[in-house]
Amino acid sequence: MWRGWFVLMAGLAGALLLGCPVAAAPVDRAKPAGRADGIAAALRRDPVYVTDHSPRSLPPDTAARIKASVARLGVPTYVAVTPTLGLGEENPGDSFVALLRDRLRKDGIYIVVSPSGGHGEARQFGGTRRLPVDDAWWAADFEMPYDAGAADMIERFVEIALSGHARERRDHPRPQPKSELRKALDADDAADRRAGYLEWGVFAGGAALSGGTILALLIRHRVRRSKPRPKPARKPAGKKPVRKKSPNRQKAKGRR
Fold first, then answer.
1. Domain boundaries defined on the chain
2. Which pLDDT tens digit goes with each residue over 102-146?
3. Helix H or strand E segment including 49
């Protein structure tokens, strides 16, 4: 009897497993090959793909800003804003950009950048107009803070690529501005320092006021003690004053 129940339960479990389709993994979390297929399909519909897995890092106008920026290049450009963790941007043989181009089979500039703009890759395949894509991308990466954002990163990349000085700016990058996190931390430190200075100022002022009062009292007491007391006036030396006899005393003496 128990064996029959076991077989029945196993059969029901198998039927449920076979009947439930396996949930498809999100495009941005699949393996590189699967991600490339999904993003390439999106790029065929729209040359700018923006992930929906990082809403806090991507303002609503990110795609519009990117399209306006890459339109200045005058070259077909395909942009994928997607998490780049594990894509291996330093290894050209394992390049996610190369995977996208292999799927699309179209010439142009391919850009893959993280939502924060801190990591990514840009390469140009074919075309008659060649741009210093690699130099411009590295120069933009050097000049922008790590949390600049994808739209800001691509805007700087386009500006450098069209400047005619991409190699010079890559070899001699401008000072990298502070990130928003660094600015916030510096502002907190400055606020703490101002609060510390104010606290010490209040303490020093109170100490100076109380100490000055005590010092004034001590000085006053010292001055009063050290001030010479006036000596009593001496009588002038000379003859003793003659006492005048009263008239009553003289009359009494005459009666005797």
1. 21-177
2. 999 999 999 999 998 778 899 999 988 999 999 999 999 999 988
3. strand 48-50
Which residue in the block uniquely carries the two structure tokens 């190699």? 167
pTM > 0.85: yes or no: no
Pairing status of strand 108-113 against strand 120-125: antiparallel
Neighbours of 151 (CB within 10 A): 23
Q: Give the span between the Cα atoms of 171 and 142, in whole angstroms.
A: 10
The tokens describing 46, both together, are: 């729209």
Q: Cα–chain-centroid distance for residue 252?
A: 119
Longest CA–CA span in the chain (Å) reads 171
Q: What are 75-95's pLDDT values in tens digits?
A: 999 999 998 876 654 444 468
Between the CA of residue 170 and those of 73, 89, 139, 148, what are the distances in Å? Answer: 19, 18, 4, 18
Predicted local confidence at residue 13, as pLDDT: 54
Listed residue (76, 75, 78, 9) closest to 42, CA to CA: 78
Please tell me the CATH code under which domain 21-177 is placed: 3.10.310
